[in-house]
Amino acid sequence: MRRTLSISIFVFVQLWSVKVFSSPLDACNLNSSQLDSLRNASFYYKSERYLEAEIELNRILQVKKCDSIRIFHAFTYLRQSKNIDILLIESDWKDIRFRILYDFSNLARSGRDFAEVPKENTYCLYPDCRLEGLESILVYLIQIKDWENLDSSSFENTSHIHSEEELKRFREYWTSEQKKIQEKSKSPYLAGGFSAAIPGTGQIYADQFAEGVTSFFVNLVVLSATYALYVAEPTSVLFYLVSGVSLVTYTTNIIGGFSAANRNNNYWKYETLEGLKKEFISLPILEKEILFKLF
Predict the structure, then answer these.
(1) 248 in a structural domain
(2) 105-164 pLDDT per residue, tens
(3) Is residue 241 part of a domain?
(4) Which regions span the lipid bilayer (predicted)?
(5) Residue-range definition of the domain harbouring residue 34
(6) Rounded distance, CA 217 to CA 279, Å?
(7) In angstroms, rounded to a whole number, what is the distance separating the alpha carbons of residues 72 and 162?
């Protein structure tokens, strides 16, 4: 009986130690020298010395092609704003962590490409399915080409993978940014009307001051030349030629006012969209969900 109890306790301790002390790095089979390099890389990364961390990880990857180390290596690239495409191979698309890092790299560079999810992937890597939710949001944001295509309900539809606090934060962010866009938006038709009344004023109204001043003086010179020729020789060929140029310049000025307002509106929409990406799909979030679960 005592022997049986001792064996049971031994087996329990062994299983408990495997569960507690095992980590994704166990599959890498690192030797003492490589573990030292990994510790150095971790220290450098936390100290925001990402190039030194990359060098330490390169030493390991020269002899060990371990996925956990490669993911850590990819994070050092992202922290240095480097393109991680050269680090990835075709088989990496089966791993959601590599797909997310690839998608994030494209999102940060305003790219339109994203990793295709293998059809056989029907399970979540972790029980909370958090990574799968992040991947769907990344792909959604990458494919957005216009602010009008961005709907807050698309984010809220993924509420099962977001905390209530995060969802509330998104709603507040969305409301404040929508209000900001409305405040900074300019009416293209009003800008065109201003430019029709006084050349260049539509552009100035649309916060394009330099363009507005240039348009004003160009139109002033051309209209003045047209008027001078009209007074001197109203039937001359030169008068008709300059009048044509004046008409084109004036029309272009009106179109320019309309376009300036649209550019101003698109700029603020783009800035808000970029802020949305950084606020909810940022590198610190990916570090928490991927990197810090490995190390």
Answers:
(1) yes
(2) 887 776 667 767 665 666 788 887 778 878 877 777 777 655 555 565 655 555 455 556
(3) yes
(4) 213-232, 238-261
(5) 29-87
(6) 43
(7) 25
